[in-house]
Structure formats: C-alpha cells, structure tokens
Write a structure and sequence with these properties.
The chain has helices spanning about 10-25, 50-55, 105-120, 145-155, 170-175, 190-200, 215-225, 255-260, 270-275, 275-290, 315-330, and strands at about 1-5, 25-30, 35-40, 60-65, 85, 90, 95, 95-100, 125, 160-165, 180-185, 205, 230-235, 265-270, 295-300, 335. By secondary structure, the protein is of the alpha/beta class. Helix 6 packs across helix 7.
C-alpha cells in the first residue's frame, strides 16, 4: 500500500510510520518530494487494515496499489524516475545512446571501437566479457581480463561502461569495474541474481526475457527494486514469435505500454530484436519515435569476423549514420540526444 504523508510532515512522524510498517512485517520504501513524502509498504499486506496507518500522526491518506508489481508501478511513483550516470541523465528529455561490441575480443579491438563510437555520438560503451552462449563450446568471453580492457577504454574515452553480469559470484568482482550492470534476457527470471543485484546500488539495464510478457518483466524488476536499488532501466530487446524473418520480433507496443504502467526508463535494443544490421537503424528510429528513453546497439569494427553477433553489428560508419537519423527523430518528438559536451 501507499502511505501519503501530510505536506511538511516532520521526520519523527515519517519514522513512526516506518516503525509501524516493520511491526506489520512489511518493508518500507520512501519517496521524499520537495513538499511531501510517500512511503510504500510492500509485502504480503492484504491482511493489514488501512486504518492502522490512517490513524498515525502525519498520515494524510492510504491507498492500496492495485498492480501486482508495486514499486515499479506508476501508481506508486507517478513521476518518471530520473537518475544520473557519469555525466548525463537517464529518464528525462535527453536520449542517451549505448554502443559497443557484443564481445570484448581483445584490448586493441575494444579501444578502437570505443573511440569510434564516442566520435559518432555514443554516451556509454557496452561490451560482453561473460557470454551466455547457446553452445557450451562457443566463445565464453575474456572474463576479468575483458573488464580491465573495458576500464581502460573508459579511461581513454570518458564513456561509462555497461557489462552483462551472469552470476551472483561475479557481482563483487564486477562492481570494481562497471558503471552499469546488464541483466540479459536469459537471466530475467534468475531471482537469486535479481535479489543480489537489488542489494547493490549500481545502475541496471534489465532486459526483457525472450518469451516474457510485460507484466512478467515488471514483476521480475520488482526483485531488484525491493532490494533498494532504484536505478533500473527496462530494455525491450525483442520477443520470440512464430516469425522467422528476423531473429526476434521487436515489440514496439511495449515501449508506450511500459511508459504508461511504470515510472522506470525504457531502452530499445534494435540489434538483438532484429538480429540483422540491415534493420537496426529503422528499429532504433521507431523505438525513439514510440517514446524510448535510450538506445543500446552493437557496433563492431569488422562485423564479418566478429566472434559473436557479427550479423547484427553495425560498422562504425553505419553507426554514425544511425546516430544522425535517430537525432532527427528525437527532435521531431520534442526530445534530443545527449550532448557529450553537456556533462552533469
């Protein structure tokens, strides 16, 4: 349920409400506004009477949240969630672009791509070092060596780095290197991993499972939010359907639907959703037109010889062209790309 305090309610009254929430064996989540504080009481609270909280000093009203996902619901947090990421803002009018290879293959490769995507307008660098592959015999990533290369690329370019985490055991080591954890489609319902990520305060790019409904995605994100990590970006990366012309089917509908249901930023991944570089720019533009708060795209300096996902990777030249096109679409819908020269 959502407990709305009177404007200007003192800290003592807020603390009293939190104490009662804990007494009822629920967890509290506080949103402090300029004039008003809202406290979420989350858990199996259907048996708790609203009157218990309505009678407390400082409480203006109590509302039950109808959605099964509580903290992710726009009913709980009406305004868009906004947070900063090393120089720019996620969730506002600006649209950041995250770019880089599917896999970090070598020091030279990632440094070259990092410089290329920065010059073309990227705001963050992506790169996989632990690779969830269909075959156990395929390239599995460089591990911590790859993280060291990513960190060096960040040092040389100033781009924050986004890296996929696949196991709870990797979190402690990765926290030393990464700016954003990526949670891939295969781990969307790895609840132990979600809980562990929720205990960190590292921003998370959370990808929709390949056969997951929107509600299932939001319910899974609740595991992260309930741990106290509020810096969550949802990512539409295509879903599995009967269509085989593309790798997945991009659910463009999901972007405005998510924007209605949740306050969390929504990112579009046109690379995985199509699986073909010929369609990446079109879907990136469509995603931004539909309301996406950012774009993540795969870029490789030699896609034909990429170790993984070369078919869906743009060349640096094609990426630069895509950025210009996305910029035009953003401006057409009264938004704009993040300017690298305007650092927060």
């Amino acid at each position: 349920m959502m407990i709305i305090m009177h404007p200007g309610a003192p800290k003592e009254q807020v603390s009293g409400v939190i104490a009662e929430i804990e007494k009822q064996k629920l967890s509290s989540h506080v949103i402090e506004g300029v004039e008003q504080t809202i406290i979420g009481a989350v858990g199996d609270g259907h048996y708790v009477a609203k009157e218990i909280f309505e009678a407390l000093p400082g409480v203006m009203s109590v509302q039950r949240i109808s959605q099964p996902y509580k903290l992710a619901s726009r009913q709980f947090h009406e305004q868009d969630s906004v947070f900063q990421l090393d120089g720019f803002t996620i969730g506002e009018n600006q649209i950041p672009i995250i770019a880089g290879p599917c896999s970090v293959e070598s020091r030279e490769q990632i440094l070259e791509i990092a410089q290329s995507v920065k010059e073309a307008g990227a705001n963050a660098l992506r790169g996989g070092v632990f690779k969830p592959r269909t075959s156990p015999y395929a390239f599995q990533g460089l591990g911590e060596e790859g993280l060291e290369y990513m960190a060096e690329a960040r040092e040389k370019t100033g781009l924050p780095i986004v890296v996929e985490v696949m196991a709870v055991s990797q979190i402690k080591m990765m926290e030393k290197y990464v700016d954003v954890f990526q949670l891939g489609a295969r781990n969307m319902q790895n609840f132990n991993l979600l809980r562990a990520i929720g205990e960190t305060r590292t921003p998370v790019l959370f990808k929709r499972g390949m056969s997951a409904t929107i509600e299932e995605m939001l319910m899974a994100s609740e595991y992260i939010l309930s741990g106290g990590n509020t810096k969550v970006m949802l990512c539409e990366r295509g879903i599995r359907t009967f269509e085989t012309a593309t790798r997945n089917t991009t659910d463009i509908n999901a972007i405005p639907v998510l924007k209605k249901l949740t306050h969390l930023p929504v990112i579009i991944d046109p690379s995985h959703s199509t699986g073909d570089s010929a369609y990446v720019s079109a879907i990136a533009k469509a995603g931004v037109a539909a309301g996406a708060d950012g774009v993540i795209v795969e870029v490789h300096n030699d896609p034909a010889h990429a170790i993984s996902d070369g078919k869906q990777s743009l060349t640096p030249e094609a990426f630069a062209k895509m950025v210009k096109q996305v910029k035009a679409i953003a401006e057409a819908v009264d938004r704009r790309l993040v300017d690298q020269h305007e650092r927060v």
